[in-house]
Amino acid sequence: MNARRKRPTSSALGPLPDHITPSQAASRAGAMERQRKSPHAAG
Description:
alpha+beta
């Protein structure tokens, strides 16, 4: 565990909770991007 990474990372989505890692935020942003690019994905 890296104590220096305790602070939430800021992103385009705003400040993230401590339990969300930058990689999870990136995958979430990627999923949102895919939904935005494919109209039928929104249901």
